[in-house]
Amino acid sequence: MQEEHLLQEIIAIAKDCGSILLSASDIERKIHQKAGRGNFVTDYDSRVQAILKSRLLELVPGAAFLGEEDQMDGTDVSKGYAFIVDPIDGTANFTRNYHASCISIALAQDGRPVLGVVHNPYLEETFHARKGKGAYLNGQQIHASDRTLAEGLILFGTAPYDEKLIRKSFEVAYRYVSRAEDLRRSGSAAIDLCMVASGRAEFFFELALSPWDYAAGALIVEEAGGFVSDLQGGALTYDHSQAVTARAPGVELVDVSDVLENDMP
Ligand code: IPD
Ligand code: CA
Ligand code: CA
């Protein structure tokens, strides 16, 4: 299928799934607990993922499919085409009607994202990028900001499902925020990445994210002229959970190795 056509089809699927989130009712009665602290899934996550799986695999038959609600049970995303999707990123927000959640879809080729779509139905914002073709918000090209860390807005995720990481997360956040302008916490890593890509914020980190949280957003940041890496500047991979940062090009990483090495209570 022609690349532009594929992109438009994937955007259309993301928007259809977004409509499901907007018309969701009775969410409180459709919440189920998953493994880990404060980790929930709703009937909507499962329903959206099932739709994504069947419609995306129709577009690229034979592609591998890694979605949060199937977990990583041996899906190999390192060879050929693979979809890496989060049906609802920001499920906790979704269950509270907080209106900051999105659908995140990446298409990877040989282990690297080549196409990413993040659709936030509440703001009708659709971010997309294709490898080497730039990043866009609702069809308009976007760029990471040219601000420095001192002028920067910091975003972070608290790695909420792993209690041991929460304190470290706040310590790392302090290292950045004390050198920057201020801080926000949205509850959706994919949206946060798109905020860095669109120049609305300068730095994002989370100490543990899964590929479905960042695969699409990471490509969107890179195509917008920003950088993604782990906390020490190492390249991201898309086959296991890891720490993730995203930054505007004028923002340097701060040394937090002592925080990462320390075994905090
Ligand atoms: C979560 C969100 C949140 C981040 C968590 C993620 P989910 O994804 O992206 O911002 O802090 O680490 O797991 O569970 O809502 O898909
Ligand atoms: Ca997620
Ligand atoms: Ca999710």
Order of SSEs: HEEHEEHEEEEEEHEHEHEEH
Arithmetic mean pLDDT = 94
Strand content: 25-35%
Determine the fraction of residues in helical runs and give it as a percent range: 25-40%
Whole-number total of structural domains? 2
Structural features, described:
With 265 residues, the chain is α+β, with helices and mostly antiparallel strands. The protein has two domains: 3-142, Fructose-1,6-Bisphosphatase, subunit A, domain 1 (Fructose-1,6-Bisphosphatase, Chain A, domain 1); 149-247, D-Maltodextrin-Binding Protein, domain 2 (3-Layer(aba) Sandwich). The chain is 32% helix and 27% strand. It is built from seven helices and 14 strands. It has helices spanning 3-22, 43-59, 91-95, 163-177, 189-197, 211-223, 257-261, and strands at residues 31-33, 40-42, 64-67, 81-89, 102-109, 112-120, 125-130, 135-137, 140-142, 153-156, 182-184, 203-209, 227-229, 242-247. The strands form three sheets. It has a seven-stranded mixed beta sheet, with helices on both faces. A five-stranded mixed beta sheet has the order 11-10-12-14-13, sandwiched between helices. A two-stranded antiparallel ribbon has the order 1-2. A hairpin with a 4-residue loop joins strand 6 and strand 7 (125-130). Helix 1 (3-22) runs antiparallel to helix 2 (43-59) and helix 5 packs parallel to helix 6 (211-223). It is globular. The structure holds D-MYO-inositol-1-phosphate (IPD) and calcium ion (CA) (2 copies). One calcium ion binds next to strand 4.
